[in-house]
Request: fold
Amino acid sequence: MISQFFVLSQRGDNIVFRDYRGDVQKGSAEIFFRKVKFWKEDGKEEAPPVFNLDGVNYFHVKVVGLLFVATTRTNFSPSFALELLQRIARVIKDYLGVLNEESLRKNFVLVYELLDEVVDFGYVQTTSTEVLKSYIFNEPIVVDAARLPPLGPAALFMQGTKRMPGTAVTKSVVAHEPGGRKREEIFVDIIEKISVTFSSSGYISTSEIDGTIQMKSYLTGNPEIKLALNEDLSIGRSGISSYGYGSSLGSGPVILDDCNFHESVHLGSFDVDRTLSLVPPDGEFPVMNYRITQEFKPPFTINTLIEEAGSLKAEVILKIRAEFPSKTTANTVLIEMPLPTCTTRVNFDLEAGVVGQTADFKESQKKLEWNVKKFVGGSEHTLRAKLNFSQELHGNITKEAGPVSMSFTIPMYNPSGLEVKYLQIAKKSKAHNPYRWVRYVTQANSYVARI
Reply:
């Protein structure tokens, strides 16, 4: 059970606070923020998601810049608490449409009504958006999403200067459009987070994909949905699926190590034609989670060269090449590389004529950061950095520098090859033709190249 729940802004302002049991001091929000902001324990500058302070357990997750926090004095499961915080954030977003400081402040009555139904005296009751609709009576005050900056999931589907069709990330599941009408549409997002490690010689040491098929429905009447995946999809390297069904399709180009499904999904025909049937609940939910460890072509290759340029100098050359098609663009690419602790100054040399690139030396952390706003598929970019040291390294530069890591988002691209072949909605009438959006995105979970 939890004692308190609160939401803090990036400045530490207390936006939402609910005390369920009264056994934790009232100033816990201020104590928590001060501890997190100036965290210096264990040689780290960022607080872990779970820590204990003066007998109080603090659990927190960061969602679009907001801190969702729970406290308790009991021996509470950390994984359960963190999952609860994520679900509370998701429920609030389902009802408000936009999750940010302004929407929380404008809808504080609705938010407190939700919290009272989700948690009762510290015990969780339900986190289902659909179930909560029977108990929630306040209407959301819709925040104008057009003037909001693209934060978190809202920025996943930005391609160049154009936004992908639809407004799934900024719509409430209970509010109606102006005029009382409700726009009939459904969104299916295939989100893959990849982990790749390159050896010092440039070969792939480890590779893994953690994927999810996320759905958000704005359909009235809860019609049945049929979602068809690749017919040559197989589960388990031996062809036996993790939920007990045997694969009759044999091995194909898309092989999942394991997967699990939402409770609303019916698997009656999945083993025959790889079709999922479900009646989608209100709100956003994962239809299917999956994991792949088979080899795949990484979206970027990283080449690093370090050369000594004297007793107290060295030069680093970073070369990044995009291996995906030219019609695809990666957004917010960040390349980081730890440097020797004796590094005092770094001079950067970017390619002539490039725009949207910046390089910086974070002296307190002894690392270089290279930002590429847009990385077009098939292109290659190079950064040269001249390092100055306070003492001689005697040939140990490569031992103290690296590894090189990358973070990025690539809309409309997925390395696994998993596809939604079609999205079928049971029609109530001939005039009933909802909008359907299927979108893909790849993100870096851990993308590292050793030197």
